[in-house]
Structures are given as C-alpha cells and as structure tokens.
Design a protein that fits this description.
Blueprint lengths: L11 E6 L3 H12 L4 E7 L2 H11 L3 E5 L7 H11 L4 E6 L4 H10 L3 E4 L3 H13 L4 E2 L1 H4 L2 H7 L22 H4 L1 E2 L5 E3 L4 H14 L8 E5 L5 E6 H8 L2 H4 L3 H4 L4 H7 L3 H5 L15 E2 L4 H11 L3 E6 L2 E7 H13 L2
Parallel strand pairs: 1-2, 1-3, 3-4, 4-5, 5-6, 8-9, 11-12
Antiparallel strand pairs: 7-13, 9-10, 12-13
C-alpha cells in the first residue's frame, strides 16, 4: 500500500490513533489552528489504523504507544511493515532511553513525551513530514538523548566539573526528580496499568529511588491528583478503608486474605485511577529555597510534592533528598 506524497499545495494529512478519546480530542485541538495540518481520520486500534490509512491515504500517523491488543512496540512494527512509507510520530509517557531507542528502531520517525505535546506537537509533525526526525528536546539534551543521537557515551566521563552548591543556596529544582523521569499517567489509566508503570520505574532506576506515588494528569496535562501505593491497595480492596469492624469480626483477616488474592483482584485492577487517586495537598515552586519545601512538607504532613515552574509541573521533590541535605550538614559529609 502506498501513501500519498505531501506537497506545499495542500495540508499535511494526519491520522490520529489512540484508544482514548480525551487524548485524541486534545491533539485535535492543538492541530486545529494550523492551516498546514489537517486531521483526515482517527483510529482506536491497529486494524482501525490500517483501514483508515487505506481509505484516507494520510501523510503522517500520530500514534499513542499505549494501544490495546498488544504492546505499542508490536503494533508499531505491524504498521511499519504494512505501511513502509507512512511517516510516524510516537507519543508516549516513557523517557527511558531503552524504550525510546526501541520505538525508533521499530519504525517511528519521531518521539514526543505526552506531557510536552502542547508545546512540541506542531513542530514535530512539520519536521517529520518534511523528511526529518524528531525527538523531544528534553530527551535530546540529556545524556540518554545524546547517546540515541550518536554521541559517544564516553562524553559523560569528560563532562565539566560542577561547582558544589551549599545547602542554604540550593533551590527546590536542584533536588527535584524531573517530570520526564518521574512516573506519571493519564486519569483514564487502570490500576493495573499504574502498577506496571510503578514497577517499570523501579526497574529503570535500579533502586536509586523507589516510586511511592504516581502523578495523574488530564488530557491537557493539567495535574489532577496523585496515586499513592496506599491508594492502589485501597482500590483493589475497598474494605481496608470502609469496614471499621473488619478486625473485630475476623482478627486474622483470613477471609479477606482469600478474597483479596482471589480472582476478584484482577477484576478490581481494571478500575480507573481517577476513582481512587488522592488530591494534591500542596505544591512548591522550583525557584523556592529547599527550606520552604521542608516547611511545607512538615506543615502538610506529606513526603513529596509536585514542583511547578511557570505554573507547569516540572518534577517531584521528596523528603528523602531534602533529608539527605540536612544529614550531610549534621554529619559533616
């Protein structure tokens, strides 16, 4: 099947593909104001993509990598094999260099982090449609992105020495975990999908930090809430939170044990995270001193906070990193 070749005389024809209507609607709204871009079809799965491509002959496919019916990588390979000339821009929540590399290897011409779609989507589509490639700058500027782009991994060994910043001069952004590294999901994800993201993050960072919560965003990447491990367990077994007489009736919780680890658990894991997530109690600005972050955490009794810059979430700061700064001073390290 051959795709049509775009010329300057007509808009770039785009096929939107993803299982979630809120995300597709958000992407449509971004593209709507661009006369050089036109959404000609939409699809929810791999068969729908192939059918729409055969009928509407798009120049470019915007592919949500969180697709049903198999992994996004498998679906991408299937589409690339069937439509070898179609330009493909992948949208994903993963910043892990291995996943990015595998996505490009599977046939994507561009890769955008979902939370940056509002800023990067138009540029990515235009660049890829013009026979180029595109990586989100936050990936291309990192060591991982440089490695993907072909920079020698030895460059990291010869990086300039960073000046040591004293704790009282440090800002929150100096200690935060960047959003591209911190696990985050859309509100329509299920508990099962959230659990997979948490496990993936733990493997990715190999024990350097253990994610105890996942940030939850809407389709426009506005922060909605936070899904803690406690929220997940409560979602899988609501009686932990609702039945105050549980211990009295069954001190060993033997009945609950049988129910919780039975077939009902997998069914419960299909709940959307929006049903059980916790509200955000407090946020902190990236340019604030770390003392303000400490004060807010103690005052609000939280162990982590979203970090904002220009009213956008840019990362997470945790008590672990703040406590290390204190202990280094106290212990003289």
């Amino acid at each position: 099947m051959s795709m049509s070749t775009n010329t300057d005389a007509r808009p770039i024809a785009i096929l939107l593909a993803g299982p979630h209507e809120p995300l597709r609607q958000s992407l449509r709204s971004i593209l709507a104001g661009q006369p050089s871009l036109q959404v000609v079809a939409e699809a929810e799965d791999a068969p729908g993509i192939l059918a729409a491509a055969g009928q509407r002959f798009p120049d470019l496919l915007l592919l949500d990598m969180e697709m049903p019916g198999g992994s996004g990588l498998e679906i991408l390979r299937q589409i690339r094999a069937a439509l070898p000339t179609l330009k493909i821009v992948a949208l994903a929540i993963h910043s892990d260099k291995r996943f990015v590399r595998e996505t490009l290897k599977a046939g994507a011409d561009g890769y955008i982090l979902k939370y940056l779609a509002h800023e990067e989507l138009v540029a990515a589509v235009q660049q890829v449609a013009g026979l180029g490639r595109y990586l989100s700058p936050s990936l291309a500027e990192s060591q991982e992105g440089q490695f993907l782009a072909g920079t020698s991994p030895q460059a990291k060994k010869h990086a300039p020495h960073k000046e040591v910043v004293m704790p009282y001069k440090k800002k929150v952004k100096d200690l935060m975990i960047p959003l591209e590294d911190y696990p985050h999901i859309p509100y329509w994800f299920t508990l099962r999908q959230a659990m997979a993201i948490v496990r993936e993050a733990a493997i990715k960072f190999e024990g350097s930090f253990e994610p105890r919560a996942v940030l939850v965003f809407d389709e426009k990447y506005q922060l909605m809430g936070m899904l803690t491990l406690r929220d997940v367990v409560r979602g899988l077994e609501p009686r932990f939170a609702e039945d105050k007489g549980l211990i009295k009736a069954d001190p060993s919780l033997a009945v609950l044990m049988g129910d919780m680890f039975g077939p009902g658990m997998k069914e419960a894991s299909q709940k959307p995270v929006s049903e059980v997530m916790s509200p955000i109690k407090v946020t902190v600005n990236g340019d604030d001193p770390i003392t303000k972050a400490l004060f807010l955490m103690i005052k609000e009794n939280v162990g982590m906070m979203p970090v904002l810059q220009d009213n956008k979430v840019v990362g997470m700061v945790r008590m672990n990193e703040l406590f290390k700064e204190i202990s280094d001073v106290v212990l003289g390290d």
